[in-house]
Amino acid sequence: MRRVEPKKRGGYASAKSSCRPSASASLKGRSAPQQHESAGSAVLRTVGGIREGCGYLLGTWRRTHFSPDIFPQALNGAGSVAHLDDLDAEYGNVWRFVFLNDEGHFILECTNPGPGTAKDSGDHGSSAFLTPDLSLDPHRGRAAVLELIPYPPFREGPTDVGLMIKAEASDLVLCSAESTKSVHLLTQHEANTTKTGEAGCCGWVYNIAWEATPDEDIALELGEYAH
Q1: What is the rounded radius of gyration, in angstroms, for the C-alpha atoms of the chain?
Q2: Residue among 97, 111, 110 nearest 48 (CA)
Q3: Which residues pair with 60 in a beta bridge?
Q4: Residue 181 is part of which domain span?
Q5: Where is the stretch described as Disordered (predicted)?
Q6: Which of 69, 68, 97, 70 is closest to 86 using CA atoms?
Q7: Number of domains in the chain
Q8: Is the Cβ–Cβ distance between 69 and 50 less than 8 Å?
């Protein structure tokens, strides 16, 4: 079976030794917000199994209809608005969690947004942050504050972390629709929309969770989808 090699991702280098989840990782009590440190710092947090400073691919936690013709999808920040694209897309698929405290509040930074990103500075290696309207912006101060909610694993890979992403101080959850490759902030009630398929049975329209996989591990996981 041929192994799928990941495409070149502009402006990002993995930190292999530091991005694997710790067995003791858990959500901790409240602490005062701290200044975000650079990758490699000894004080970087691990919250809910996610290691700060590491690059992750956020694959869909699929509860919607499965189609064998669709390559595994992931959150993508290339272009002007967040959307879904292939897990091994050239740009926009590597995300870094910047934690604001130990309770799981964070902002989400796309480390390889690529050309064409909203307000792109022209440096395709620069990063962009997810904003409240799900657009991408290079200014950290405009980033949406999000909350990490632990969720059961989906593919159950040794380094995969299941999670829901919730907008802080709201009942909105970051959801995805693989049929349209779109991403939305929805209430649980809105996200539980169903539709009748060709076989006459109902199915979910939106996925409500994600699975984070360290960037350096994704080539191994994609091998099973090669033909």
Answers
A1: 17
A2: 97
A3: 210
A4: 44-225
A5: 1-41
A6: 70
A7: 1
A8: no
Distance, CA of 170 to chain centre: 19
Return the structure tokens found at 161: 């972390």
How far is 117 from 136, CA to CA, in rounded Å? Answer: 7
Residue 178 inside a domain? The answer is yes
**How many CA atoms does the CB half-sphere of 171 hold within 13 Å?**
5
pLDDT at position 27: 32
Position 37 pLDDT exceeds 90: no
Residue reference for tokens 């740009």: 91
